[in-house]
Amino acid sequence: MAINDSQKYYGSVSRLLHWITALLVTLQLASAYMNNWQPGNAFSQLFQPWHATVGFMILALVGLRIVWLLFQIRNRPPHQGKAVLIGHLSIYALLVAAPVSGLLQGFGIRLFDHLVSKGIGTPFAEASQAIHGPIAYLLTVLIAGHVFMALFHHWVHRDGTLYRMVGQAKS
Predict the structure, then answer these.
(1) Which family does it belong to (predicted)?
(2) CA 1/CA 115 separation, integer angstroms
(3) How far apart are CA 49 and CA 67, in angstroms?
(4) According to the model, what pLDDT value does residue 14 have?
(5) What percent of the chain is modeled with pLDDT above 90?
(6) CA dihedral 142, 93, 72, 147 (to 10 degrees)
(7) What are the chain's domains?
(8) Which residues touch 2 (CB under 8 Å, ≥6 apart)?
């Protein structure tokens, strides 16, 4: 499998960055929702101490994805319309906004449940706390739409979109 993207499929680097991000975001959202709905459940107790670390990892991965995208943009097929472009840009924006709003809350930076940097009071702490959850809800809706459209293209349009995402040419 090629490293670089092509008109037929996304390369191994793009797919790896996509699926690692998808896994981390899924774990992040699942643990947060479970903690909100059933505080103290076993899954949340296991994962919640890692919430800030995973958020920081997501932010770093999205940064890498953006850099990689800029190098691969000419290799990729053109977007299938403005709605697709707006959807993808919105997901990227929220994948940045969620961890940034978490960092701006002023609790410090924790990596693997160890405090790396003390929190500092920021003028944005209260606003960041207020928007962190709604950003996650909006991100969930956009991700659900993203998954739905990938499956819709696969089963209804049969246009090879899903095959490009998993690295196989349409047969």
Answers:
(1) Belongs to the cytochrome b561 family.
(2) 40
(3) 29
(4) 94
(5) 52
(6) -10
(7) 12-166 (1.20.950.20)
(8) 11, 12
Mean pLDDT of the chain: 88
12-37 vs 51-72: helix axis angle to the nearest 10?
Answer: 150
Helix pair 12-37, 125-152: axis angle to 10 deg: 120
In the predicted model, is pLDDT for residue 103 greater than 70?
A: yes
pLDDT single digits (tens) 5-53:
988 888 999 999 999 999 999 999 998 888 888 887 887 788 877 888 8
86 pLDDT higher than 80: yes
3-class DSSP state of 118: coil
CB distance 159 to 153 below 8 Å:
yes
Give me the phi and psi of 124, to 5 degrees please: -100, 0
What type of residue sits at position 54?
V
